[in-house]
Specification:
single chain; 322 residues; alpha/beta; Quinone Oxidoreductase, Chain A, domain 1; Rossmann fold; 2 domains; six-stranded parallel sheet; 11 helices
């Protein structure tokens, strides 16, 4: 397919520009997808603010038009001759390049190339934008290594924390949810979690006084104090799963971790666990988790700069029409 397309290009600190570039060309093993909708991930906002660990991986001048958008859904408009798993007209998710460890994500554009997309025909496209965070949540739960009846503390009830909370409860695991937002705690409580304010100085004492065996803490907040609290409330032989942290350096309480014989896990897609993309897509297609009500803002991709400039910290997710 020949022609031009619009794309959002992250050019530097607080600077997205809308540019016109060539539509990417595919190889015989790839698929060209027309992007329909895409979410703004916390990592996208963090990179725009130059506050995410991804900013240490990528220099501004190395970014290309469309980077680093990834919470997307689209329609196949062209398939290479070797492609058998999807056809033109299919609605698809996982619009990344498999051979680059899913880190080549260039979906802030009208078109994108993929060699690993998953069909999701008939599903609500806005819901399917959440396939990536559901996949990440499944990775978290895998590394937590818990069983039905166990207790897990999920620190941070942003989008990822709320999805993790739902999936754990659906698997009959007890959840203690923490966050600084009353709204998000109310949502978590509605899913069946015990919910407590994270900014309560007595939070650690409160959880300890419950005399529960905390088998895992899943840290989704990115707050330094959450990591310290996690070390204190964890039970012996348990696990801390860290994903919310955006910093390049994190301090753990060595004394607490050592005397408890605790484990720290850092989830990364396709590393030390199975590929959870298809299970994530299936969960959303079957309506097994609530995500639609998390969309607080809808806008156009062409307005991404304005959206980020006026971002409300209470928003759970923004969806952009492409």
């Amino acid at each position: 397919m020949q022609g031009k397309m619009k794309a959002a290009w992250l050019k530097g600190y607080h600077k997205f520009e809308i540019v016109e570039v060539d539509i990417p060309q595919i190889t015989p093993d790839q698929v060209l997808v027309k992007i329909n909708k895409i979410g703004i991930c916390g990592s996208d906002r963090g990179m725009w603010e130059n506050s995410h660990f991804f900013n240490e991986l990528y220099k501004w001048e190395e970014l290309e038009p469309g980077d680093h958008g990834h919470e997307s859904v689209g329609t196949v408009v062209e398939a290479g001759k070797n492609v058998k798993w999807v056809k033109e007209g299919d609605q698809v998710v996982r619009l990344n390049l498999y051979d680059s460890w899913d880190l080549k994500m260039s979906n802030f554009a009208e078109y994108s190339v993929t060699d690993c997309c998953i069909p999701c025909n008939g599903a609500d496209p806005e819901v399917m934008c959440f396939t990536d965070p559901v996949m990440v949540a499944l990775n978290h739960i895998h590394h937590a290594n818990v069983s039905p009846g166990d207790t897990v503390v999920v620190m941070g009830q942003g989008l990822l924390g709320l999805i993790v909370t739902q999936l754990l409860i659906d698997n009959h695991i007890n959840v203690i949810a923490t966050d600084i937002s009353e709204r998000r705690l109310k949502i978590a409580k509605g899913f069946g979690a015990a919910a407590y304010p994270a900014n309560n100085k007595e939070l650690v004492d409160k959880i300890k006084s419950m005399n529960v065996d905390v088998r895992a803490v899943i840290e989704c907040s990115g707050a330094d104090e959450a990591v310290d609290a996690a070390c204190q409330i964890l039970s012996r032989g348990a696990t801390i799963v860290v994903m919310g942290a955006t910093r390049t350096r994190i301090t753990f309480n060595y004394t607490q971790m050592r005397i408890k014989g605790a484990t720290i896990r850092f989830p990364m897609n396709r590393v030390n666990h199975k590929d959870n993309w298809k299970p994530a897509a299936e969960i959303l297609m079957k309506g097994k988790v609530e995500v639609k009500s998390f969309v607080d803002k809808r806008a156009k991709l062409l307005n991404i700069q304005k959206v980020l400039e006026n971002y409300d910290d209470e928003w759970i997710r923004v969806i952009l029409d492409v």
